[in-house]
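Worked example 3 (structure in, sequence out).
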């Protein structure tokens, strides 16, 4: 009897509805088994499947390898002139951690939801967030996305933009008619 073929997928989900947990590649067999690959690991938007409370330091390293041509030199015609200031400037580890704090907390909450309720709950939550984040904005009106704040758990937080307002970079107080013409490209 031939050994079952292990699928190349890194991780898949069980086909039975009662067992909605992640299974490792060693458990996924092709053939007579009841387990079939349904989705890959990138289901929850490439998030780390750990319970990491504090984000890692993750130093940013700028290199020319991303913009190099076949000779190993920076391709100026395709990527524009090199920005040496961006390559040299390094930020502190504390700043990197503060920038990634909300993302790490959100990943931890989604992973806990996945483990307690099942994979459908984080999927539903991410889908709802995506739907409400692309809401239409009427020019001349204050932009607020209370729906996204509720889904992200920020509805009870009072932050600086909530009571001081946001900075309008578009150029001051123009009439609503001009803003609508600009939005509708008239």
């Amino acid at each position: 009897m031939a050994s079952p073929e292990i699928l190349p997928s890194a991780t898949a989900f069980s086909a039975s509805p009662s067992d909605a947990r992640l299974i490792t590649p060693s458990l996924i067999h092709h053939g007579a088994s009841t387990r079939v690959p349904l989705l890959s690991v990138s289901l929850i938007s490439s998030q780390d499947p750990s319970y990491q409370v504090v984000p890692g330091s993750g130093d940013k390293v700028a290199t020319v390898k991303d913009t190099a041509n076949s000779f190993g030199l920076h391709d100026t015609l395709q990527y524009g002139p090199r920005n040496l200031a961006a390559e040299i400037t390094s930020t502190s580890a504390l700043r990197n951690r503060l920038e990634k704090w909300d993302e790490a907390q959100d990943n931890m909450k989604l992973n806990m939801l996945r483990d307690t309720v099942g994979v459908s709950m984080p999927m539903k939550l991410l889908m709802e967030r995506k739907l409400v984040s692309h809401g239409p904005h009427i020019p001349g009106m204050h932009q607020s996305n209370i729906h996204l704040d509720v889904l992200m758990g920020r509805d009870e937080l009072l932050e600086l933009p909530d009571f001081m307002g946001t900075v309008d970079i578009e150029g001051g107080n123009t009439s609503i008619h001009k803003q609508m013409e600009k939005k509708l490209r008239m």
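Notes: The two ends are 71 Å apart (CA to CA). The chain is about 35% helix and 5% strand.
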